[in-house]
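Intended use. Records such as the Large ribosomal subunit protein P2 entry shown here are meant for training and evaluating sequence-to-structure methods. They are not intended to support clinical decisions.
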Amino acid sequence: MRYVAAYMLAVLGGQEAPKAADIEKILSSVGIEADAESAVVEQLAGKNLEELIAQGREKLSSMPVGGAVAATAAAPAAGADAGKKEEKKEEKKKEESESEDDDMGFGLFE
């Protein structure tokens, strides 16, 4: 991924077809030893970076993404008891934090 990012930086810097030395220079400037930059240059040679990004976006848009459905389904199943317990916990935390914040961990005349 770092090689692709360096390639993209070189393109944004004005080079239409960055070479392996350009990628190595970018990576070495941030302390990364480059060893496979030539493979990235070979695979991206002659290709338009904007078109490759657009193709990648199309592929990502068809990918299913989960997680939100499970979270919304689990919320009603928790019930009212869980909400009351959470409120009590929050009240305790607020009380503790208020007493700690009053003197900020040290006394003025101690």
